[in-house]
UniProtKB/TrEMBL annotation:
This is Putative NAD(P)H nitroreductase Spy0809. Belongs to the nitroreductase family. The keyword Signal does not apply. The lineage of its organism: Bacteria, Bacillati, Bacillota, Negativicutes, Selenomonadales. GO terms for molecular function: oxidoreductase activity. CDD domains: nitroreductase. Keywords: Flavoprotein, FMN, Oxidoreductase. Residues 15-70, 73-154 form the Nitroreductase domain. Its cofactor is FMN. The keyword Flavoprotein applies. Its EC number is 1.-.-.-.
Length: 178
């Protein structure tokens, strides 16, 4: 495939994707869920340490638990909980307070979010949940911290982008060439 065509396909995908907050009851096919998880698995991480874990919350019990912790699961049929294992993340040798785990997990989640959209599956990046209570509810180890939730599923009829979705600041404001 021509490099320019590949770039255009990605830009179309990136521009069309929006946060879905209303999901249908249609289950996600196993092969599509596997493809979404594979997109996360191949994401780059600092020093390739791969300090993240992805929990696929899809059982009635797991979904009830996460829905009891946040209203932002949006009744999705699957919620991906992305965590960071603090003992596995790369640490900047020049500044020990700079740790790559959150960045790594964010890259993983972005890969999964975009692969889902490419497969016709919506998602919404969620940080609105009690981190400590969630870790306790799912019995995570002390060194493992939930970073984000990614409810995924087929968009329900009437789902649409939020009004502010297309509002973007200009590159003149956001990008500085030095």
């Amino acid at each position: 495939m021509n490099k320019r065509l590949m770039n255009m396909a990605f830009m179309d995908l990136a521009k069309s994707r929006y946060s879905v907050r209303k999901f249908s009851d249609k289950p996600i096919e196993k092969e599509k869920l596997d493809a979404i998880l594979e997109a996360g698995r191949i994401a780059p991480t600092g020093h390739n340490y791969q300090p993240y874990r992805v929990y696929v919350l899809q059982s009635a019990e797991a979904l009830e638990k996460i829905r009891g912790l946040t209203r932002c699961a949006f009744n999705a049929p699957v919620v991906l909980m992305v965590t960071v294992r603090k003992d596995e993340e790369w640490v900047n040798p020049f500044e020990h307070s700079i740790r790559a785990g959150e960045q790594d997990a964010s890259i993983v989640a972005t890969h999964m979010m975009l692969e889902a959209w490419d497969l016709g599956i919506g998602s919404c990046w969620v940080n609105f949940f009690p981190v400590t209570k969630t870790a306790d509810a799912f019995q995570l180890e002390l060194n493992e911290v939930p970073l984000l939730l990614l409810p995924i599923g087929y968009a329900a009829a009437g789902a649409k982008a939020a009004p502010q979705h297309a509002q973007r600041r200009s590159n003149d404001e956001l990008v500085k060439v030095l």
